[in-house]
Amino acid sequence: MKRHISILLSFLFLFLFNISFALTEKDFKHSMNFYQKLVEKKVSVEELIFTLEKILRKYEDMGVDLTPVREKLLIIRKFKVSCDFYRKLEAEGASLDERITALKRILTKFRNSDVDLSGMERELEQLQEEKAARRKELEGLEEFKLGEDATTSTVKESSKKSKLEEKKVEEFEEGQGSGPETEEHEDLEDLGEFKP
User: pTM (2 decimals)?
Assistant: First the structure.
């Protein structure tokens, strides 16, 4: 009889444990559904981290497989570290190219995670638009500079010609140079050989 009672108590204990575990599993699924609703609402990263940590603490000693929760928590923490690093870059005055590269890396790395990336995507678009506007501005300056360089070189060439002409006039007036007329006369003398 005692043996039957101990067997009966063992079965009762296993039955209650199974019911308890089933309730725990159901409760865990409910908690994960709540977390998923937070993800869909696009709550802050801090709130996601807080919720996952709370789930871990609640079900840690209940025999529930918490591996997916730990993986999600790890990814979200890495995302937070990456965001903090990006904000530090921004505060230190990083160039547009550096910030664009950092944002692209973050968006690529965390594309399939539970975090809301829409704010970073908007920021990336703004930075790319700003970069395009600066490029257009620089192109406009280059065109202006090229036009200015052409004008400057034309002015320099005409200045050189006028200085050369002034020098020839001075030499001619001093009797040192041959002047334009004598140069032309010498050219004609060279052609004199060919006269019949």
Answer: 0.60
pLDDT in tens, 175-188: 654 544 444 445 54
| Span 8-26, pLDDT tens digits | 555 545 444 444 545 578 8
List, in order, residues 6 or more apart from 60 with CB less than 8 Å away.
66
3-state SS string for the chain:
CHHHHHHHHHHHHHHHHHHHHHHHHHHHHHHHHHHHHHHHCCCCHHHHHHHHHHHHHHHCCCCCCCHHHHHHHHHHHHHHHHHHHHHHHHHCCCCHHHHHHHHHHHHHHCCCCCCCCHHHHHHHHHHHHHHHHHHHHHHHHHHHHHHHHHHHHHHHHHHHHHHHHHHHHHHHHHCCCCHHHHHHHHHHHHHHCCCC
User: In the prediction, which pLDDT does 142 show?
Assistant: 73
Q: How far apart are CA 170 and CA 132, in angstroms?
A: 56
